[in-house]
Amino acid sequence: MALTKLDRDLLERCLAGKPGAWRDFVDRFLRLFVHVIRHTAHARSVKLVQADIDDLCAEIFLEILADDFRVLRQFRGKSSLATYLAVISRRVTVKEIAHRRKEKSLGLTDLTQSSAAANGEQQRIEDADEVRQLLTLLSPDDAKIVKQYHLHGKSYREISDLLGVPENSIGPTLTRAREKLRTASGKVSS
User: What is 117-189's CATH topology?
Assistant: First the structure.
């Protein structure tokens, strides 16, 4: 199937940075990404919870946004945009699933979960301190999302309703925030 006029216009608007273009892009392709994530995980016998799907969607969006929409700029229109994005989302999902399996096989995932359970309340306090440190590094809008998610335990839907932000923008915001904290922690320890 060839590139449709609707997708061509949407692609051009995104690449030109037109207002509302990214929201339209996310609204149009989010269900596709979720479908690809679920199908890919099922094919690899990996069980996912909603938080995993949200995180994988965030990774896909970050891949698309990286290097000023590099992935979209490389699209040549020889297939439908949905087909192209399905391939991209599958690659990201496979890479992330492999990464998680490697962590689990090395004992990193289980060790972290056991440690958190053993520390109980103390772990939450340390995490809360880390989140508060992160809040100082973020824009006010991003800080509100991080605070609601990490300190108040709100779901993506609750945050969306409370703050009036698109639900599918919350995962990417949280991922960027975690990356800022990792970067800041690296600078402090260096």
Answer: Arc Repressor Mutant, subunit A (1.10.10)
Q: Is 19 helix (H, G, I), strand (E, B) or coil?
A: coil
Contact of 128 with 146, CB cutoff 8 Å: no
Helices marked H in the chain — which ranges?
A: 5-16, 21-43, 50-73, 81-105, 108-119, 121-135, 140-146, 156-163, 170-189
Name the phi and psi angles at 154, rounded to 5: -75, 150
Domain limits of the chain? 5-105, 117-189
Distance from C-alpha of 99 to C-alpha of 94, rounded to nearest angstrom: 9
Full pLDDT tens readout for the chain, 190 residues: 678 899 999 999 999 989 999 999 999 999 999 999 999 999 888 888 888 888 899 899 989 988 888 999 999 888 899 999 999 999 999 998 888 777 776 654 433 343 333 333 323 334 666 667 777 878 888 888 888 877 777 788 888 899 998 887 888 888 787 777 767 666 544 3
Please tell me the class of the 5-105 domain.
Answer: mainly alpha
